Amino acid sequence: MSPKANGGVARSTRLRGADRQVSIPTFYSAEPFASGQQLTLGEGEAHHIRVRRLDIGTRVALLDGQGTRGEGTLVRLAKRNATVEVDQVEQVPPPAPVHLLLPIADKDRMLWLAEKAAELGATSWRPVQYRRSRSVAARGEGTVFTQKVAARMQAALEQSRNAWLPTIYPEATLDRAIAAAPKGIRILLDGDAPALARNAAIMGAAEVPEGGLPTPVVIAVGPEGGIEPDETARYVEAGFARASIGQTILRFETAATAALGIVRSLLAGPAATP
Q: Which CATH architecture has domain 26-91?
């Protein structure tokens, strides 16, 4: 994803408190915003403002999911919208790319994973049609469900203050998903494989390189019923290295969340020693 244009504002203002944790209400805006602008938030955000009993004059934080963070003052609250006077804006570079291929499964558990994917900074999200998974689009729920996924991710963005939303791709067949996956480190979660954090086939060595894990990274998670042998073979032929999270059998959403966390940690490289 590329950052949105910020209304032609070249002077990106450093947010007050950007170097410290500041607990102020945070809201998502689907529209780009700039310093000096009066930004209108929609009905959903206005409802959240009323639920939180925020008063006119309250300082709020803003995110557009495309790398722009801002702050401003709530100046108007109506039934169907709210207005924020934006006075600070900064551009946040995108994190190292980590793409997620997940099985089509129980909707509630997919929505739970959507939240965690946004919190952990997944770059993209693509459901995959495995032989043991079933499509939600086949029941006419594809578009509606995608909207629910987006809403969960936006809420997670507000909670985590992550500046970037994952790109949501439509579900795809296994072959299409593999073909569309970027080149780089490709990981297939497999309980019988070496542990992800110590997998030499993935790291290229017994330990993580000093600069952290190279990117981009693609994490593929299979259905709980298991990936068929020929599906595993297609992943391996496409350069995916098999890796495990642990010795227990995990639900797909647990495995995906754990893998995202491990990879994000590895991407950061070794901690500096004092």
A: Beta Barrel (2.40)
